[in-house]
Specification:
205 residues, mainly alpha
Length: 205
């Protein structure tokens, strides 16, 4: 993951703008769209967000508006970054997400969570075969789950998290709770996502 904020520069010291910017950057990072490390929340971080989204073909109209908008317009910029976060939520980017999740989870765990064979995954990763929409949706979902978990654990911890029983999942592991032929809208995956999101606020997950 490339998002490690150590400092903040004006106007991103505004709480509302900082929250909106970190929200968009966190999503982009989980999707593998931040192409270089981001350590300071400033205009260069937003430029990195623009670059990654443009490469993935996401939010072209938002990016055009973002490019024209001065960072000093805090209220408008906050609103636009919130819209960008929503666009990222709704825009699977398998070419980037395969690369990122392969590095964090490894092919064996990733294919097991997705419910596909290793040979299919290798074809999708290499680009020799297009990722089906249903698999792209699962991949996108896992990118955000892994991104949330990575806020608390290193890569080894992220991998182990999926196979550890959790009380909030009725004693099942996140991998078991996803089930077979799952969709992000299913009850099990939604519970897994909620558990991952809770990591930063509860040590008991």
């Amino acid at each position: 993951m490339n998002l490690h904020i150590w400092s903040v520069r004006s106007p991103f010291d505004d709480p509302g703008l900082a929250s909106a910017a970190i929200g968009a950057l966190t999503r982009a990072d989980a999707m593998g769209l931040l192409l270089s490390p981001v350590t300071c929340l400033d205009e260069s971080a937003i430029e990195g967000l623009e670059t990654g989204m443009a490469e993935a073909g996401i939010g072209r109209s938002f990016l055009a508006e973002l490019h024209r908008m001065p960072c000093s317009d805090v209220a408008r910029l906050s609103t636009l970054l919130e819209k960008i976060s929503e666009a990222l939520d709704q825009s699977p980017a398998p070419a980037h997400e395969w690369r990122t999740l392969q590095g964090v989870l490894g092919v064996e765990l990733l294919t097991r969570l997705l419910g596909i064979s290793g040979s299919s995954a290798r074809r999708y990763i290499s680009g020799s075969r297009s990722t089906p929409d249903a698999i792209a949706a699962r991949l996108h979902f896992l990118a955000f789950v892994a991104g949330d978990v990575a806020g608390a654990y290193n890569d080894i911890g992220v991998r182990r998290w999926f196979d550890r029983p959790r009380e909030r999942l009725d004693g099942n592991t996140p991998a078991q709770t996803l089930g077979d032929e799952w969709s992000p809208e299913d009850d099990g995956p939604r519970r897994v996502r909620e558990l991952a999101r809770a990591l930063t606020s509860s040590p008991a997950t």
